[in-house]
Amino acid sequence: MPITPTHYMLLSAALFIIGVIGVMVRRNIIIIFMSIELILNAVNINLVAFSAQLHNVVGQVFAIFVIAVAAAEAAVGLGIILAFYRNKESVNIDEMNLMRW
Amino acid sequence: MAEAIAFYVIAAFILGFAVLVVTTKDTVHSVLFLVLDFLFVAALYVLLSAPFLAVIQILVYAGGIVVLYLFVVMLVNLKRAPEAHEDPHRLTKLGFGLAGAVLIELGAILVSGYMKAPAAASAAPAVLPVSGNTEQVGWLLYTSYLIPFEIASMLLLVAMIGAIVLAKREL
Amino acid sequence: MIDQFVIPVVKILVVLNATLIGVSYMTLLERKVIAWAQSRLGPMRVGPQGVLQPIADAVKLILKEDITPRKADRWVFTAAPVISMVPALIVYAVIPFGPVVHMFGRDISLYIADVNVGLLYIVSVASVGVYGIILAGYASNSKFPLLASLRASAQLISYEVSVTLTLVSVILMSGTLSMVGIVNAQYNSRLWFGFVQPLAFVIFFIGSLAETNRAPFDLPEAEQELTGGFHTEYSGMRFALFFLAEYANMIVVSSVATTLFFGGWLRPFPNVAALHFLDVLPSWTWFLLKSFVFLYIFIWVRATLPRYRYDQLMRLGWKVLIPLAIVNLVVTGIVKVMLL
Amino acid sequence: MFDTSELVINMGPQHPSTHGVLRVVLRLDGEKVVDAEVVIGYLHRGIEKLSENRNWTQIILLTDRMDYVAAATSNVGYCETVEKLMQIEVPRRAKYVRTVLCELQRIASHCLWVGTHAMDIGAMTVFLYAFRERELILDLFEEFCGARLTYNSMRIGGLPQDIPPGWDKKVLAFCDIMDGKLDEYETLLTHNRIWLERTKGIGVIKGPEATALGLCGPALRGSGVARDVRKDEPYAAYDEMEFDVPVGMVGDTYDRYLVRMEEFRQSLRIIRQATAGIPEGPIVGKVPRLIKPVAGETYHAIESPKGELGYFIVSDGKSTNPYRFRVRPPSFCNLQALPRLVRGHLIADVVALIGSIDIVLGEVDR
Is D252 inside a domain boundary? Predict the structure, then answer.
């Protein structure tokens, strides 16, 4: 049974859902950040799956841009976590309820 | 046939590690599972005949970003685990419910899409003068997608400066 | 059927065993060369001229007790040496030891796989190698190894940037990422990239010294300061794995340097008719000879140079090597565009 | 794990680069040393108390064990102090041989210093070279007094026995070898960029502050103060030798290194002059059979390889044992400058600085 793009879409949907659950359920900010990375990966899988099916490399170019943005987001996000940890000694998202601290 | 087996094996690993990332208590273990997850996603890209992206995924994601996470996890080693105390007004059940709803909705779209006849073949892609996956990606990146490329580099520069300003103790 | 499975598996076995034997004999080579440099004899007791010393070391390390610190993270503690060893071994999939050769009535290529993203594959596998060190420091759950592992990984990451930039300038010259393609490009352009790109080679060499934690950059396991660096808590077989991983990385880096900068398996002046008598040596011996020269230089540098301090090391990495690598890249680009 | 406040790390007493059982408690802010506290006493054997129930000749053995790297200079220093108290006239031959022995000991001690100092900073080869030369000197000492480390090479009033025939030829032969070997050390270290970067500007201390802190020997001369006991208060046959005292300008680790490397050459120069000019004559002055100095006290200092080594002895005139025997060891005084030198540097520099002030714990703890 040949592998159709729908299989890839189902896989990326499942990965997307796991990411969303991770963001919603966990309280540790770092785990939340990692779940966001999972979501971005799910998007990438979709992009590459369609680019392979349509034999058009544009999808992969977009995937590279997604990776670049993910890198930037991770760097700044972790900077915020470090700054927050230095003030509040905890990485529990519930305690992050102030816009400025 | 071999490709189908490979796909299912890799997909199983990806989803398995993703679940482990989200559920393990120890943060370092979940970072490790994340690395393994990204390596298998890279394997998936190789299956989708996108070797350049697979290598970039290992280099940037597994080799760079997750190392960043590992550093932060070690610097932010906690004396009391965040999940230690139960937070009363946490709507975990609602979270699961919402996620389930989204899953059902996505499944419905996919399944219905699968029933209908495949969409009309879209316009044939522009034939690129170069062959080979890396060359084509490179060609597109520097011709039709040059502006987004420059913007992305600006974005990375801004992110670097932002991270340094945030993380450094005294400037 | 045979071409699909049997030959690649045989090739992999040959390369893996050759590497493992090479790595164990590297320890002997290093002790002998440093001993010779320090006007002493080196290991002489086991076997004639100390030849069986690596086997003795291996047996000793296997029999030694393998303790795990009490509050250490058991799984990560055991996985760390493996994680630092595996990348060093899987890089050999793309390194070409020779051209396609006609043996046993069949055309066999003296390389395991000609991946068209070969060079990027090597760089990305090297970047995954950092995990072994970080996790080792983290898992041993004590102050000194953690400090050492953070420093080691920061050093590795910062030198990876300059090494990758030099590799990009080589790709600019060769036009292809596949390792076999690069060696053919050097054959066609009749000039080894080491001479066309001397600055890139020097930066690559210094960067690889730092990436394998060797010689002037072997700060992470500087006994004097941090009492042993990140593998203080390790003993027995696991310590041996770390030790071998360092040598495996060293062999990998020297074979990559040979392939990229000194024409992998090409014998000197391959197309000069007068030197055809040199062809009696099979191609992969040239490759081994050249990588041996680099290994010798690695050890020679370790015997003579003192060690950099951590901030000087990072300053050199960021403020000297990376700008130089970028300048080299830009100049190569301009020259390539103007000439072609 | 380690929060942003200071981190306290114990370097030693069991540590590869603290030259013996020295414990340095470092308070670190990240990588920078905020403050250092030196803890000593692990090698205290109570030599000064022991000496109070031993007669004057038996104490010579104890002086060997203090600075075990430079035992000959300690013996000569002690015997000269007792001779000064009892006003014994030492024959010229004994004085010349004492000068040769002291300078040979200085070269041996500096060999050990350059080896361990370079090894701490990472250059392993120099250690092997330096110890190869030190072996030659130990052989010369073994011929003269039978021992390689704790020599017991002096007697109050002169030499225990005359130098074996041909010994001075061997010493001159050694000097020629050593000249060549010194160039080897210099090529390995002096103009080595990494060595320069690890030692230039580390542990800078200016002259006045160095004297105030009580630094002495090469550590003090590295900061520009030309204080050398062999020149200021010449003893043995130093007044008849011409040699110059190398002095540093900046007072950092590199200057102390250069001063000691120059001292190697000056010692060779002295040895050549002294060995060539050893006069004939008796080897022991008029010494009473039972050494019982008249009541009194005296202080006499000599230039040991580490610095100014002083002996203060008090005799009550009644018994054959000293009433009080006090030693002013150079390593002890140099070591107390360590916290001041180390402040503001990194951990790797602490190691380089301990090597640069060249301490021996036997002498520090006594």
Answer: yes
Using a CB–CB cutoff of 8 Å, tell me whether B79 touches chain D: no
Residue of D nearest to C221 (CA): D122
What is the residue extent of each domain of chain C? Answer: 67-339
Distances in whole angstroms, Cα of residue C329 to Cα of each of B143, C324, D21: 20, 9, 52
User: What pLDDT, in 10s, does the model give residues D16-55?
Assistant: 666 778 888 888 887 788 999 998 888 899 999 999 989 8
Q: What is the DSSP string of D200-234?
A: TTSS---HHHHHHHT--THHHHTTT----HHHHS-
Mean pLDDT of D82-86: 91
Please, are residues D251 and D204 in contact by the beta-carbon 8 Å criterion?
yes
Give whole-number Cα distances, D90 to C258, D232, D281, in Å.
70, 20, 11
Give C320's contacts (C-beta < 8 A, 6+ positions apart): none
Contact predicate D35/D343, CB 8 Å: yes
How many beta-carbon pairs below 8 A join chains B and D? 4
Task: Record the tokens describing residue C170, joined without a space.
Answer: 């080589």
Instruction: Check CB contact of D29 with chain C, cutoff 8 Å.
Output: no
Which residue, among C290, C268, C255, has the nearest Cα to C111 in the 3D structure?
Answer: C255
Chain B CB within 8 Å of residue D87 CB: no
Q: Residue B127 gets which letter from DSSP?
A: P
D311 within some domain: yes
Domain that residue D139 falls in:
7-365
Question: Which residues of D fall within a CB distance of 8 Å from B75?
Answer: 1
Closest-CA residue in chain D for C301?
D123
List the structure tokens of D85: 């108290």
Residues in chain D: 366
D155 phi/psi in degrees, rounded to 5:
-130, 155
- Number of residue pairs across C and D with CB atoms under 8 Å? 77
For the complex shown, is ipTM > 0.95?
A: no
**Would the CB atoms of D124 and C224 count as touching at under 8 Å?**
no
Cα distance between residue C211 and residue B66, in whole Å: 19
Task: Report CB contact under 8 Å: B18, A64.
Answer: no
DSSP C71: T
Token pair for D117: 């100092």
Collapsing DSSP to helix, strand or coil, D161 comes out as coil
Determine the average pLDDT of the residues in B128-140.
83
Which among B20, B27, B28, B40 is the top mutation candidate for probing chain C, defined by the most C β-carbons within 10 Å of its own β-carbon? B28
State the nearest Cα–Cα gap between D193 and chain C, in angstroms: 9
Is residue A82 scored above 70 in pLDDT? yes
CB-nearest partner of C40 from D7, D128, D346: D128
Query: For residues D326 and D312, what is the distance between their CA atoms, to the nearest angstrom?
Result: 5
* List of residues 6+ apart from D149 with CB closer than 8 A: D64, D68, D71, D138
Chain C residue with minimal CA distance to D8?
C143
pLDDT in tens, D114-145: 999 988 888 888 999 999 999 999 999 999 98
Question: How far apart are the CA of D73 and the nearest CA of chain C, in angstroms?
Answer: 30
**Token pair listed for D212:** 């105030």
Closest Cα in chain A, distance from residue B17 (Å) = 10
**0.90 exceeded by pTM:** no
Residue D260 domain-assigned (yes or no)? yes
| Separation between Cα atoms, residue D217 and residue D335, nearest integer Å | 12
Q: Write the CB contacts of D135 (distance below 8 Å, at least 6 apart in sequence).
A: none
Report the amino acid identity of residue C103. M
- CATH code: domain of residue D134: 1.10.645.10
CB contact set of D4 (below 8 Å; sequence gap of 6+)? A86, B169
Amino acid at D248: G
Is D60 contained in some domain? yes
pLDDT reading at C233 higher than 90: no
Helix, strand, or coil (residue A40) = helix
Q: Count how many domains chain D has.
A: 1
Q: How many CB atoms lie within 10 A of CB C106?
A: 10
Instruction: Tell me, yes or no, whether chains B and C touch by having 3 or more C-beta pairs under 8 A.
Output: yes
